[in-house]
Amino acid sequence: MGRGKKIVDTSVVVEAAVALIETSGFDEFSTRRLAAELRISAMTLYNYYDNRDAILKETVLRGFQIFWEGLPEKIDRCYDACANPLRVYSVLAEHLIEFALARPNLYRFLFWADLGALMRDETILLRYREAFTGVIDRIEDKAAIKEIGDDVYLFEVLINALAMNVLAGRSGMSPERYRVLAAEGYDRLLGRHEAAMRGA
To answer: Can you tell me the distance from the alpha carbon of 45 to that of 187, in angstroms, rounded to the nearest whole number?
Structure first.
């Protein structure tokens, strides 16, 4: 292993971490395996990062960049075409299942892995909240923001759980069944708020 090898750009480390997670899953991720993929010693990694969590934080942020690819454009099209701005959550639900099917291990890492204290990191929390920020400005009834936000959270939990069941093949879940249940969840949780939305 090239102990004297230097890393010129730390994005190489992050891309290798993403690739390792995509190939083997987060349960198999370790800094030792990451260092082996990079052909450096494990200690060399810590010349660039304070600890494993620092590597994982950058990997989560990169994972969200990958997840968000194409999503802002889909959301903008929905805002332009939909009378009800909350419909962006139907767009999000579809994007989520497409991403889960295309990159199952990265999906599990971003939305299901136990990342401990990282999940309280403000930068990462902002990534999780990003979809709701564009909706808030379009809520006509400002008194409804908290209730809508709570129902958005429940909808996000629902679609995440449904996507995980698709990936695990549980309960006869298929992508088609996911879409039916996500639509029902949208109607029950978010559809009832349409009157509170500007332009709805």
So the answer is: 48
Q: Which residues pair with 197 in a beta bridge?
A: 139
Inter-residue contact 100 to 163 (CB < 8 Å):
yes
- List, run by run, the mean pLDDT of 10-residue segments along the chain (200 residues): 64 96 95 93 89 92 91 89 88 96 95 76 72 73 87 92 95 94 96 72
C-alpha 145/C-alpha 119 separation (Å) is: 24
What residues contact residue 18 under an 8 Å CB cut-off, 6+ apart? 59, 62, 63, 66, 106
The label of the residue with tokens 């129902």 reads: 151
Angstrom CA distances, 134 to 61, 85, 138, 154, stand at 20, 9, 7, 18
**Residue 143's CB: how many other CB atoms inside 10 A?**
8
pTM over 0.85: yes
CA–CA separation, 110 and 61 (whole Å): 9
